[in-house]
Amino acid sequence: MWGHYLQSLMASLPFFFKGLGVTVQVAGLSLTIGTVCGFALGIARAGRVRAVDLALSAYLDLIRGTPFLVQLFIIFFILPEWGVHLDAFASAVLSLSVYGTAYICEIVYGALQGVGPGQKEAAAASGLTWLQQMRYVVVPQALRPILPPLVGQYVLLIKDTAVVSVIGLTDVTRVGWLTVQRIPNGILVFGLVGLMYFLICYPLVWVSNRLETRLTVEESSL
After folding, report:
1. Domains and CATH numbers, the chain
2. How many CB atoms sit inside 10 A of residue 117's CB?
3. What is the per-residue pLDDT across 28-38, written as a single tens digit (0 to 9) for each?
4. What is the per-residue pLDDT across 168-205, written as a single tens digit (0 to 9) for each?
5. Neighbour count for residue 78 (Cβ, 10 Å)
6. Cβ neighbours of residue 173 under 8 Å, at least 6 residues apart?
């Protein structure tokens, strides 16, 4: 019986690879948008403009305080009632981008706050504008502590792509759900799904661990 299931599963591999391609596309777009927006909002929040800080705090609290699945449903099911119609792919990318932006913004903001005030004062005394201070002094120094948690957030975001299968997007997780109805062996089917996610995430996990180890060694040698 297991041999029959395994043979049927191997015959379904093209569908799994197609679903994996959709997962990679969604994750890649979401990570790119989330990184760009997260850095922009993190730097904006570090500007200490009260109105901006209040608006961003409300956004961050809302996104981090509600389940991602609820946010996905709002974008896919509720926005059409307001005249905004998005297909499953666009809804998945938008919801993951909004979700990822909030966490990346906090990572960036925390790292920027960790740069010593003396560095900022020296940059200001040199006649640099606030944007120049961020670009040439603060952000370069903040990149080192940003990278390990940023890569870790990338891994979490990639794994969160599994949730978007509930709105009908044929990613690798949904392919698994469809396949298990035809091949009633969840261990084989979702073992393959898990393996595919592992192959995407492990290189990032390895990079994150290497960065943390390297930074720890460099800090201890100072």
Report:
1. 2-220 (1.10.3720.10)
2. 8
3. 999 999 999 99
4. 888 999 999 888 888 887 788 898 999 999 999 998 88
5. 10
6. 19, 23, 161, 162, 165, 193
